Amino acid sequence: MMVDYGQYSIVSFTFNQEQSIMKCLIPNIGSTSFKFRVLDMPAETVLAAGRVERIGQPGGECADYPAAIAKCIAEIAGPGKALQNLSEIGAVGFKAVHAGPLNESQLIGDEFLAAMEQFSFLAPAHNPPYIAAIQAFRQQLPGVPLVAVIETAPYRFMDEAATTYAVPYEWRSEFGIRRYGFHGASHRSASERAQALLGSNPLRHISCHLGGSSSVAAFRNGIAVDVSMGASPQSGLPQNNRVGDIDVFAVLYMMKRLGLDPDQMAALLGNRSGLAGISGTSGDIRDLTQAAAAGDAHSQLAIDVFVHSIRHYVGAFMVSLGGLDAITFSGGIGENSAEIRAAILKDLSAFGIELDEEKNRKIKGEGPISTDHSPVKVLVVPANEEIIVARETAAVAGRALASSGQAR
Question: Is 0.85 topped by the overall pTM?
Answer without folding.
Answer: yes
